[in-house]
Fold this protein.
Amino acid sequence: MDRPMDLHYTDAQEAFRAEARSWLDAHAPAPRSLASLDTAAGFEAHRAWEAELAADRWSVVSWPEEFGGRGVGILEWLVFEEEYWRAQAPLRVSQNGVFLLAPTMFEFGTDAQKQRFLPPMASAAEIWCQGWSEPDAGSDLAGIRSRAQRSDDEGGWVLSGQKTWASRGAFAEWCFGLFRTDPEAERHRGLTYFLIDMATPGVTVRPIPQIDGESGFAELFFEDVFVPDDLVLGEVGKGWNVAMATAGSERGLSLRSPARYSRAAERLVDLYADCLERDPDRARRSADSVAQAWMDAEAYRLNTLWTATRVLDGGSVGPEASANKIHWSQTDLSIHRAALDLLGPEAEFHGDGVDAPWLDGFLFALAGPIYAGTNEIQRNVVAERMLGLPRG
C-alpha cells in the first residue's frame, strides 16, 4: 500500500528553500532584463546566467555532485523550482538537456557518455536541441523516415533525413535524435537514438520564425552525417524505448514544474482583484474562469507531489505522463484565457514591467497542446493504456 502523501516539508527541506531563496535574491537578473532566448543575443545572455547558476551548483540540484549537482532529491528540486519561479528568474535555455536528455542519459548512458556530456550540459557550455519530429511524422514518432546506415569501415553510422520544430535548434551545439537503422523492422523497432554534434559536416540548420518573428526553432537537414558508435545512446535498434524515457520526462515531472503554473495563477488572482476595483462587471463575468484556472494549477501541484511520492517509493511515471501533459497544457491556456477576458482590449499592452505581458504568454500557451506530443495523441494513450479502452 502506498504511503500517504505528506504536504509538509521537513526542516532540512525548508532550510534548503531558505538557501535557494537567498541565493536567487542575490543573483537572479531583474525580471525580463534579458533579451528573448529565441534571439542570438538573448540565447547567449541566458547561457551566461545558467553558467552562473552552475558555478554555485544551482543549475541541476538533483544531479549527483560529480556531475555538477547537489545530490538532493526530487522534493528538493520542486522546492527549488518554487523559489526559481517566485524570483521570476529567466527561462532555462538548457531545458532540453537538463530536463529531457539528462534523465534518459542517467538511465541508458554509458559511464563515458555521462562524464563527457553531463557537466557541460549543467553549465550550459553545450546546449541541446531535439531532433524528433519530421515533416510527415510529428506526434507519430514511429513514422519517422530519417535513416542511419551502418559504416563498418569507420565504426559508426551515416545519417540522412530531415527534422523539424527543433526547439533551440537555431543556436544549439548538440542534437539528440531518433533515426531508423533497420528499414525492414516494424514501426516501433529498428530505431536508434543518436547524439549528434551540430558542427559535423552535412548538418544544415534552417531557422523557423515563430508567431512573434523570433527564430528559436529550426529545421535540421542531415546529408551523409557521420556519427561514431560511442554517440549511440542505448542499444542499436531499441531507440524507441530510449525515446519513450525522454518523452516521459517531457510529459511527466521534468519539463513543466507546477511552480510555473502556480506563479501564473497567483498573478491571475491579483489581476482579478485589480479588475474588480476598476471594472466590477467585467471581473464578475470572469470570476468562474479565474477560480477554475487557480484550482487547476493547484490540482497540478498536488498531483505532482503525489507522483513524486510514488517515485520516491520506487514507482515510475508511466502512461500517466500523458494525462499529466494534457492537464498542464490546458491549465496554461485556461490561465491566460481568463487573463485576456479580464483585460479585454488592454491585453495588447498590459504587463510591461516585472511580469511578461499576458498576451505573450497566451501566444506561447497556444502551442502547449501541440508540443511534447499533441493532446489528441495523448488522449489516445490515456484511453488505451490507462483506461484499457479498445483502439478506435
